[in-house]
Write a structure and sequence with these properties.
heterodimer, A: mainly alpha, Cytochrome C Oxidase, Chain A, two-stranded antiparallel sheet, about 65% helix, B: mainly alpha, Four Helix Bundle (Hemerythrin (Met), subunit A), about 80% helix
Chain lengths: ~525, ~200
């Protein structure tokens, strides 16, 4: 294993070659990589759009783009980031690559459906991209497609809606595949409570995917019908109700936040025990908090609509549930910290990213409660405070967990190791850049800076400028990290099967894994996080 | 193809579980429309009453019987394949498809009649109607339209099953595809069982 690359045994990366062998592969690991490469490309595109928006806002007044261009940019930035990058994100990439291995299976339950999901996904992704460029009218509704504007805007809204519908279908199929896989494909002896916690988080995620996504599907179809047939469900002139759209939209789109964050929580739950060489603290509470988040998260959508016109009773009810859903998240934070406590903590890059995940996620979580309180919400609704809050959750949470995941499983996926020094430096840039980019938005948001404005009062300039500087640092860190990973995926030092001394199943097989994962079906005889072979590094 | 090692048959219970989950997502898809129906009905109870009188309960009832019988024939085709009577199974699925066709023809006349009366979203007549009636006909076309789309998809699926039985891929020992096709067909039936009273009977 440690010899030159020519003597590397056959594995999933090299057992077949050529582009077609990838595009037609039903191997879950290859499909996971297909997702990873497509998601990375779209992420870079949307990140550059974000940078351009930040450049526009470096000074008051128009700097590099018109107001209309800016509207199109935040819309496509949102559509790409939410529907193409973050919702599939961790589940489709690391879920695909690792779920079957971690539960001791050869593949997912429906390998062909899995490949089909990727094709559906890529179709939706290109439709989304097409909606930006066709006829030069990129949608400018924001990713939320709020009626009445989305029913009237003279832009490619129908194409963008169709793209979101198609992407939702891919998400449903992946969720369905994972649920059946977890139910039916676990290795002998792997009872539910011997299952590692990343698969558990994917299980909770998958249920949200299949129970919530159809609602957005039908809602998007209704908006399409609204535009093409003037069916009127959301048009007050015909008797419809625009607020009804907001309800239907958030019935999906709030649970979708948990589709993003639950797998992220699962990833860091794998990382903390490994780099503390200590069993995870409170396995069962973590499992149940995941399921509780999935359940309660389904019923908090109204907190996006406190200012839209709802009865007082509905508002306090949704506010109460919002506070309730914070409890299982806090339980997890407690468990992660307790896992590290008293362990032999080894601050390698994956752990660095995982710890920054806790830091950023906690800020995002607390500001979420600020927004979930009825009184403060009225002041903060539709300000940059909201923008800062959800970027702390989505980018600081899910994004940093994605970076943690790739640094953690990179040696398993490619059989090679990246450069630690550059990983740490790029982490520094990402972490500093991220906070500099988004933290000032909390401040100017409280001061009254509205979101989605391409211009602003000069009194906000300090905050806006700091934020733009942060964006440059963040992008620099991003490309540093990508360069480190891409270069070392081919040229890095050959990695051993278990470089981090992890104990879950993926570390018991060679790196990269063979095509069918296990030479013989593993038999599980004990709990997942038992570190009884203390190894020194 | 790298799929050769993976192309072994999917275990029947696994395949059925996947299908059941998919059917749940279909129910939730229609669920969104049921929510809109509930909201609009409570808002415009009287208008819904008047608009529903426009629908022909006789055609609706006929179509209900047609779909119920087709669900029975598709279930009988499963029994036939379990008894290794492939030709009988094909015949029964064929009857199911014919009944699906009858359903669609009825639907065609029903919709055609509405179009003749200019009772469709966006028409000149519609604009003059009370709000609740506009909502009712919007829901009528959206719900029955989406349902009709599912009838077509189900019909295509069952046609594929016929060919798979003919080519011997679906047989007594392995009839997962046929079972899933039948499950899907029952879903089509089930949704109609809800649409029929909501649109035609409650006036």
């Amino acid at each position: 294993m440690t010899n030159s690359s020519t003597s590397v045994p056959l594995n999933y990366l090299n057992h077949q070659t050529g582009l077609w062998s990838w595009l037609s592969s039903t191997d879950h690991k290859r499909i996971g990589l297909l997702y990873m490469y497509s998601i990375t490309i779209f992420f870079c595109v949307a990140a550059i759009l974000g940078l351009l928006m930040r450049i526009e806002k470096i000074a008051p007044g128009q700097t590099i783009m018109s107001a209309q261009t800016y509207n199109g940019m935040f819309t496509i930035h949102g559509i790409i980031m939410i529907f193409i990058v973050v919702i599939p994100g961790l589940a489709a990439v690391f879920g695909n690559i690792l779920l079957p291995i971690m539960i001791g299976a050869k593949d997912v339950a429906f390998p062909k459906l899995n490949l089909f999901s990727w094709y559906v996904y890529i179709t939706g992704a290109f439709l989304g991209l097409y909606s930006q460029f066709a006829n030069g009218h990129s949608p400018d509704t924001g990713w939320t497609f709020y009626v009445p504007y989305s029913a009237e805007a003279s832009s490619n809204v129908v194409i963008a809606l169709t793209a979101a519908f198609v992407l939702g279908f891919a998400s449903i199929l992946t969720g369905l595949n994972f649920i059946v896989t977890i139910h039916r494909m676990r290795a002998p002896g792997m009872t539910w409570f011997r299952m590692p916690l990343f698969p558990w988080s994917l299980y909770a995620t998958a249920w949200i995917q299949i129970l919530a996504t159809p609602i957005i599907g039908i809602t998007l179809l209704m908006v399409i019908a609204e535009r093409t047939f003037h069916i009127g469900f959301f048009d007050p002139a015909l008797g419809g109700d625009p607020v009804l759209y907001q309800h239907l939209f958030w019935i999906y789109s709030h649970p979708a936040v948990y589709v993003m964050i639950l797998p992220a929580m699962g990833v860091v739950t794998e990382i903390f025990p490994t780099f503390s060489q200590k069993p995870v603290f409170g396995y069962v509470p973590i499992v149940f908090s995941s399921m509780a988040i999935a359940l309660v998260g389904y019923f908090v959508w109204g907190h996006h609509m406190f200012t839209s016109g709802m009865s007082y009773e509905s508002r306090w009810f949704f506010s109460f549930l919002t506070f309730l859903v914070a409890i299982p998240s806090a339980i997890k934070v407690f468990n992660w910290l307790s896992t590290m406590y008293g362990g032999s903590v080894d601050l390698k890059p994956p752990l660095l990213f995982a710890i920054s995940f806790i830091f950023l996620f906690t800020i995002g979580g607390f500001t979420g409660l600020t927004l979930g309180s009825l009184a403060t919400n009225i002041q903060l609704h539709n300000t940059d405070f909201v923008v800062a809050h959800f970027h702390y959750i989505i980018f600081g949470g899910m994004g940093f967990a994605f970076f943690a995941a790739i640094h953690y499983w990179f040696p398993k996926i490619y059989g090679r190791m990246y450069n630690f020094k550059w990983a740490n430096i790029s982490w520094g840039f990402l972490f500093v850049g991220f906070n500099l980019l988004y933290f000032p938005l909390f401040v100017i948001g409280i001061q009254g800076m509205p979101r989605r404005y391409f211009d602003y009062d000069p009194k906000f300039q300090t905050g806006e400028m700091l934020s733009t500087v942060g964006a440059f640092i963040l992008i620099a860190g991003l490309f540093m990290m990508l360069a480190n990973l891409i270069y070392h995926s081919r040229k890095g030092a050959v990695a051993t099967a278990n470089p981090w001394h992890g104990v879950t199943l993926e570390w018991q097989i060679p790196s990269p894994p063979p095509h069918e994962n296990f030479d013989e079906v593993p038999v599980i005889t004990r709990d997942p996080y038992i570190f009884d072979n203390p190894q020194t590094n | 193809m790298s799929s050769t090692e993976h192309s072994e048959l999917i275990d029947s219970d696994t395949g059925k579980m996947g299908m059941w989950l998919f059917l749940f997502t279909e129910l939730f898809l229609f669920g969104g429309l049921f929510i809109v129906y509930a909201v609009m009905r409570s808002k415009y109870a009287e208008d819904f009453h008047h608009a529903a009188l426009e629908l022909n309960a006789f055609i609706g009832a006929t179509n209900t019987v047609v779909l119920l019988v087709s669900s029975m024939t598709v279930a009988m085709s499963l029994t036939a394949i379990q008894q290794n009577r492939a030709n009988k199974a094909i015949g029964l699925i064929f009857i199911t498809l014919i009944l699906a066709g009858v359903f669609m023809v009825n639907k065609y006349f029903e919709w055609g009649h509405k179009l003749d009366l200019h009772l469709y979203p966006g028409s000149d007549v519609m604009r003059t109607l009370p709000h609740g009636e506009i909502m009712f006909f919007g829901l009528y076309f959206m719900m029955t339209g989406l349902h009709a789309l599912h009838v077509i998809i189900g019909g295509i699926l069952l046609t594929v099953v016929i060919f798979k039985i003919k080519s011997g891929k679906v047989h007594q020992g392995h009839y997962l595809l046929q079972e899933n096709g039948a499950l899907y067909w029952h879903l089509v039936d089930l949704i109609w069982i809800f649409l029929f009273p909501l649109l035609y009977l409650i006036t």
